[in-house]
Structures are given as C-alpha cells and as structure tokens.
Amino acid sequence: MKPSQTEDKELLSRCLAGDRDASEIFVQQYSSLVYWAVQNILVLKHIRFTEDDLHDLHNSVFLQLFEKQCKKLRQYRGDKGCTLATWIRTLTVRITLNYLRKKGVDSIEGRSVLIPLEELSDLREEKAGPWELLEKSEQHRMLRHGMQNLPPRERLFLKLHFDKGLSIPEAAETMEISVQNAYTIKHRAIQKLKSYVASVTKS
Q: What is the pTM of this model?
C-alpha cells in the first residue's frame, strides 16, 4: 500500500529533523522507485549498463537528498498536488541525465555489459558473434527454448518481467524478494541464455 500524503509529510519531517530511523525507512520506501527510474532512463537512452551502474546512480540519488543537512530534500514543497514519489522520480531522472552528461556514455558502456531484458530480442555482442548470425525470429525461438532450461526461479522472473511486462521492482515484489536479488537473478538468467545460444550456434 502506498503511503498517504500525510504519512509522507510526517516521514519527511522526521528525516529533516535528523531522525536516522526515519532516513532508513525513507530509503527503503523509495529504493525501488529510484532503481526503476534510473533503469528506465538508461533503457530509453539505449545505454548498456551493469548492476554496479544501477547501484552507483541509486546511491547517488539518496546521497544528494541527504547531504548538507538534507538541503535538496528540503526543496520538496508538494505544490499543485505533486506527491513525494513523483518528485523523487523527477529528481532521479534529472540526476541520471546529469551523470550521463558529466561522465559520458562511454563510462558506462566500457564495463561488463548487462543488457536490459526488455531488449533480449535484439541482443548482440559488439564483435561479430552468434547473436549476429541469428534472424530475429530464430533468435526469439532459441531464447524461448533456452528459458525452458533455466531453474524455476529464473524462469518465473523472466516470465513476469518479459512476458507480463512487470518492472523489476514489481517482479521482485511479486516473488517476495529484494530488488537487488531480482537484478542478480536477471543478470544470471541473461548470461545463461547467451551461453545457451552460443552453444547452439556452434553445434
């Protein structure tokens, strides 16, 4: 259940007063939202990223909110019906875009690649490899077959995220696991699928 505006204001007041317990609750409450907003921007910008990139940007958002005695967090006014969640999502987008402008896209692309599951049908390596040898229809068929060989937990996650269109935080909530654990499952499943396709194309 989403917190009411009254509950948001009370939690915010406690955070601004320096209540550490409230700050921890605040991070837990909005962590999934921040992860989702960061990943959404990276996907929309067609930028490849790793779990470390997500964690870094996630942490950067909360760091900026709480640094200098919550200077940025104090900027929230709730004007015109803007909820705290909407404001945090907007702020996350701004921080992510600023990060990309300052660091440059190459700073993310240069790392070990974790490609969003939404783009599995278009997966391919930077260098010529098995992904480039497959037509999309054949690639899709192989991915589906490869999914059947995954452990039940990974297969369930892919079904929720890929077939049902749930975001990673939503899939994590459905499976009753942490968002961080969901990203780990996603990364592991993708690597297994890539290995499966590579083995099939070599046979």
A: 0.52
Instruction: State the first-to-last Cα distance of the chain, in angstroms, to the nearest integer.
Output: 50
CATH number of 117-202: 1.10.10.10
How many other C-beta atoms are found inside a 10 Å radius of the C-beta of residue 159?
A: 13
Amino acid at 111: R
Side chain identity at residue 68, one-letter code: K
- CATH number listed for the domain at residues 5-109: 1.10.1740.10
Among the residue ranges 3-7, 173-177, 198-202, the one predicted with the least confidence is 198-202
Q: What are phi and psi of 68, to 5 degrees?
A: 55, 50
**How does the average pLDDT of the chain come out, rounded?**
76
Q: Which two tokens stand for residue 159?
A: 């079904």
pLDDT in tens, 11-31: 899 999 988 888 889 988 898
